[in-house]
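Budget justification aside, the reviewers requested a transparent look at the raw inputs and outputs of the sequence design task funded under Objective 1. We therefore reproduce one unedited record. The lines immediately below are the structure tokens for a 66-residue chain.
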């Protein structure tokens, strides 16, 4: 088996408050990448959509590799 099956992925969703209101931070960290990928959203629905997309992509990768 290749090293692709040993990739570790972390997807996080954080709500932050600032003086302008709430913002939402979605981060994807993959062990094979040097730096995590982070996106910031003003709308919770957009952040949830990104979180679900990244999580679904990972699950498809894992299930497709079986």
């Amino acid at each position: 088996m290749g090293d692709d099956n040993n990739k570790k992925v972390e997807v996080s969703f954080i709500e932050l408050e600032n003086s302008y209101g709430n913002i939402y931070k979605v981060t994807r960290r993959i062990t094979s990448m040097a730096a995590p990928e982070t996106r910031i959203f003003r709308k919770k629905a957009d952040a949830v959509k990104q979180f679900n997309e990244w999580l679904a992509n990972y699950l498809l990768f894992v299930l497709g590799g079986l």
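The radius of gyration is 14 Å. The mean pLDDT is 87. Computational costs for records of this kind are itemized in the attached budget.
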